[in-house]
Design brief:
The chain is built from 1 helix and 3 strands; from the N terminus they run ββαβ. By secondary structure, the protein is mainly beta. The model has no long low-confidence stretch (mean pLDDT about 90). It starts with 8 loop residues before the first strand and ends in a 6-residue tail after the last strand. The longest helix is centred in the C-terminal third of the chain and has 6 residues, at about 45-50.
Amino acid sequence: HRTAPLGTIIKVTNTMNNKSVLVKVIGSLPDTGENDNVIIKLSATAAKMLGVINDKFQASLHYAIPKE
């Protein structure tokens, strides 16, 4: 994920079929041209659970970042 801290749990919902999965942030996206329009990258397993058929798809993300 681009801004969520490591360890954050995010609920990702595929807006095309309403399937959801909980994922854990394990790294941040580097600022490269390849990631300009990417908010989150998912594992192949998470993508399969969401019924993703293309590399890029629309999703809603829900998570909370606790105050320090």
